[in-house]
Amino acid sequence: MAAFAEKAPFSLRTLPGLLLFSVQLSQALPVPGGSPGEKNAQLVQDYLEKFYQLPREGLRSERQNSPSVIVEKLKEMQRFFGLDETGKPSQETLEVMQQPRCGVPDSGDFMLTPGNPKWKETNLTYRIIKYTKQLSEADVETAIKKAFQVWSNASPLTFTKISQGEPDIKIAFVRGDHGDNSPFDGPNGILAHAFQPGQGIGGDVHFDADETWTQNSSNYNLFLVAAHEFGHSLGLAHSTDPGALMYPNYAFRDPSTYTLPQDDINGIQTIYGPSSNPIQPTGPTTPTACDPSLTFDAITTLRGEILFFKDKYFWRKHPQMRRVELNFISLFWPSLPDGIQAAYEDVDKDLVFLFKGCQYWALSGYDIEQGYPRSISDYGFPSSVRAIDAAVHYRTQTYFFVNDEVWRYDNERQSMEAGYPKSIPSMFPGIESRVDAVFQQNYVFYFFSGPRYYTFNLGAQRVTKIDRSNKWLNC
Ligand SMILES: *[C@@H]1O[C@H](CO)[C@@H](O)[C@H](O)[C@H]1NC(C)=O
Ligand SMILES: *[C@@H]1O[C@H](CO)[C@@H](O)[C@H](O)[C@H]1NC(C)=O
Ligand SMILES: [Zn+2]
Ligand SMILES: [Zn+2]
């Protein structure tokens, strides 16, 4: 038995574009049926019952759960998601609880099942018992097949589709209460669930038929959810690695270039051994904030937040929250590429500009402006400049760092200033090496080069401090 879902977590927002405003939203929205406090208490209760084995209220008719049990379960949940372990339902805890996710619990029976359930054979069969009307049968089959391939590429397992008889893994789109004591909850909230390897219902996968299932970046991409659920069908539990496929919350990634992350490869190979392929697959590893050699690709402010870009991820540092949040770039901006190289905020225009190679994009808040990407030749760069290392905006000027030189763009005259490029140390004494990333805050430029950052005071025109880059991520 894998899931104990009962009531829907109410979902104020599931669209990444709204994340920025979610704090204000959840405070401002009228809350039907109860005060915000009661509503939050119910959300916490439901979430912990479903995913953290909190005993259900009502089943024990005499007593309610004691507050200390809830605090312990809340801490366990906060530890899983890398939140501050306060045992209190902080705003960020409530936000995580409202994200769309898998219905399989993060702790409890599933992970503790004695003997780590696994399939005895490696040649497994599957059958699609019930389809969704939202996609053609052919499209469902393509997504399912591709999702199995994610796992067969990384292990000795094979998957064969059958259309009659008893398969190992039964797949069905079902809604509401569907006879396994784990009802679905309508749109959003719980998207799907799956059962660990075994006879009968073991290995089976159910998708919530009330979700909108897609083949693209609109919520929810069937291939991505299926690949996650099949991990459970094969015996994997949830991972705390936010980049892993087995992370419980949904995050969009481009299916056409999808490669199984290393964390999941390690998981499946621990159970079934290496791939039958002579060349073992390797997958992307999630950057860890406190890795002492961590470097950044680009950094910018955005309406008071600071965004730190790295490969296909960015960390988001909110001024009021201690925690920094790691996100996929594709979760917020499905059309942006990975590996953003430079970024700056133009506070007057209220736009953030992101650069990769010869292209750049403009963001208004978390939305990409129409008409982008555009070419950096707009700024007057010669064609010899193929990429920008770092950029920062100050007053009416934008500084671009390319190799060991700096260019300065005049935003009023809309042209590159004469006399540039200049050597970086001639403009910024003390900044001797290439710049990976730079941003401006309170008349200070923070230059990042390798694992160090340099505080450059614009008034004093000198470096006033050098420290580890990842101090910005609370390390
Ligand atoms: C899987 O392999 C085993 C052993 O080789 C065999 O007995 C079984 O019939 C195979 N099952 C399928 C579905 O091919
Ligand atoms: C995804 O596909 C659906 C159905 O084909 C379509 O309505 C929707 O606009 C698409 N979304 C994107 C972001 O392309
Ligand atoms: Zn799951
Ligand atoms: Zn089910």
Automatic annotation (TrEMBL):
UniProt keywords, alphabetically: Calcium, Disulfide bond, Extracellular matrix, Hydrolase, Metal-binding, Metalloprotease, Protease, Repeat, Secreted, Signal, Zinc, Zymogen
Sequence intervals crossing the membrane: none
Family matches, as SUPFAM superfamilies: Hemopexin-like domain (SSF50923), Metalloproteases ('zincins'), catalytic domain (SSF55486), PGBD-like (SSF47090)
Repeat is among the record's keywords: yes
Residue positions binding Ca(2+) 4: 297, 436
Subcellular location: Secreted, Extracellular space, Extracellular matrix
Cofactor(s) the protein needs: Ca(2+); Zn(2+)
Chain coiled-coil ranges: none
Gene3D superfamilies: Collagenase (Catalytic Domain) (3.40.390.10), Hemopexin-like domain (2.110.10.10)
Residue numbers annotated as active site: 229
Positions of post-translational Phosphotyrosine modification: 372
Cofactor note: Can bind about 5 Ca(2+) ions per subunit. Binds 2 Zn(2+) ions per subunit.
Residues annotated as binding Zn(2+) 1: 178, 180, 193, 206
Family according to the record: Belongs to the peptidase M10A family.
Name of the molecule in the record: Matrix metallopeptidase 8
Taxonomic lineage of the native organism: Eukaryota, Metazoa, Chordata, Craniata, Vertebrata
